[in-house]
C-alpha cells in the first residue's frame, strides 16, 4: 500500500523553465491538496481539489496551476519558475466521508530549487 | 489567517513534560495536530472537533477550547522519539467543503537524553 506518492523527489530548475509535479494516491480519497513549506512559515496551501475534475485556490495560488483529471492524480504546474518558488512541496489527500473531519495523509515531498 | 503556535521552540530532557499551544483569531470547527521529523512528511496525530474535547494518543494528548479558539497539545514523560516539529492545522467555521486547513508556523521540539 503506497499511500501518497510524489514525483520527482528533487529537481533543480532555471528561472523561466516550466515543470509539473505529480501526486498519486491509492486510497480512493476524494480530497487532495498541494502545500509548500518554507522555513519558519509552516505549510501553506497552494491549491486543492474536492473531487475529480475540480480545483480551487488556496492561500498562495499565484504562479501555480493544477489539474485533477483522474481521481487518483493531482498535478501541480509551474509555468515560468521563479527563485521565490524554491521550496519543499507536499501533496496530501483525505477521505471526504461523513461529517467528521478526516486526517490528511502526506507524501514524502518534492524539493525544488530554482536558480 | 494563520494560527499562532507557542512556543516556537522547546528543549526537553527525556521524561519531562511540554505543552504546545495553538491560537486562532477565527472561530474554529476543528483542530488537527501533526508531527514532522526533519526531512520527512508530516504525520497525523489527532483531530479535535468539539469544544472541550480532549483526546489522547499514547502519552500525547490534546484539548480544544472552542470559546477561546485555542488548542493545546500535551506531551507527557517525553521520549527521544517525540523530537520533531509540531504543527496545528485549523478549519474555520462554518465547516468548508474540502476540509482545507490553515497551518501554524510550527513548534520545534527537541528531546535530549
Which features would summarize this protein structure in a list?
heterodimer, A: 115 residues, mainly beta, Immunoglobulin-like, seven-stranded mixed β-sheet, four-stranded antiparallel β-sheet, 50% strand, globular, B: 113 residues, six-stranded mixed β-sheet, five-stranded antiparallel β-sheet
Textual characterization of the structure:
In chain A, 0% of the residues lie in helices and 50% in strands. Chain A has no helices and 11 strands. The termini of chain A are far apart. The model of chain A has no long low-confidence stretch (mean pLDDT 93). Chain B has 113 residues and is an all-beta fold. In chain B, a hairpin with a 6-residue loop joins strand 4 (28-36) and strand 5 (43-48). Chain B has no helices and 11 strands. Chains A and B meet through strand 4, strand 5 and strand 10 of A and strand 4, strand 5, strand 9 and strand 10 of B.
Amino acid at each position: 500500500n503506497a499511500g501518497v506518492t510524489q514525483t520527482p523527489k528533487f529537481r533543480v530548475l532555471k528561472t523561466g523553465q516550466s515543470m509539473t509535479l505529480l501526486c498519486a494516491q491509492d486510497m480512493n480519497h476524494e480530497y487532495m491538496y498541494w502545500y509548500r513549506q518554507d522555513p519558519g512559515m509552516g505549510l501553506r496551501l497552494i491549491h486543492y481539489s474536492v473531487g475529480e475534475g475540480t480545483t480551487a485556490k488556496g492561500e498562495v495560488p499565484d504562479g501555480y496551476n493544477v489539474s485533477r483529471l483522474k481521481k487518483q492524480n493531482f498535478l501541480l504546474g509551474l509555468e515560468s519558475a521563479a527563485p521565490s518558488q524554491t521550496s519543499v512541496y507536499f501533496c496530501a489527500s483525505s477521505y471526504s466521508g461523513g461529517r467528521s473531519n478526516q486526517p490528511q495523509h502526506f507524501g514524502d515531498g518534492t524539493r525544488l530549487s530554482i536558480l | 489567517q494563520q494560527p499562532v503556535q507557542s512556543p516556537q521552540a522547546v528543549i526537553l530532557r527525556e521524561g519531562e513534560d511540554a505543552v504546545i499551544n495553538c491560537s486562532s483569531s477565527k472561530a474554529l470547527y476543528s483542530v488537527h495536530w501533526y508531527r514532522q521529523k526533519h526531512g520527512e512528511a508530516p504525520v497525523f496525530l489527532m483531530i479535535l472537533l468539539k469544544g472541550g474535547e480532549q483526546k489522547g494518543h499514547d502519552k500525547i494528548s490534546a484539548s480544544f477550547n472552542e470559546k477561546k479558539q485555542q488548542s493545546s497539545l500535551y506531551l507527557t514523560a517525553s521520549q527521544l522519539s517525540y523530537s520533531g516539529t509540531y504543527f496545528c492545522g485549523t478549519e474555520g467555521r462554518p465547516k468548508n467543503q474540502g476540509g482545507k486547513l490553515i497551518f501554524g508556523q510550527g513548534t520545534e521540539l527537541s528531546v535530549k537524553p
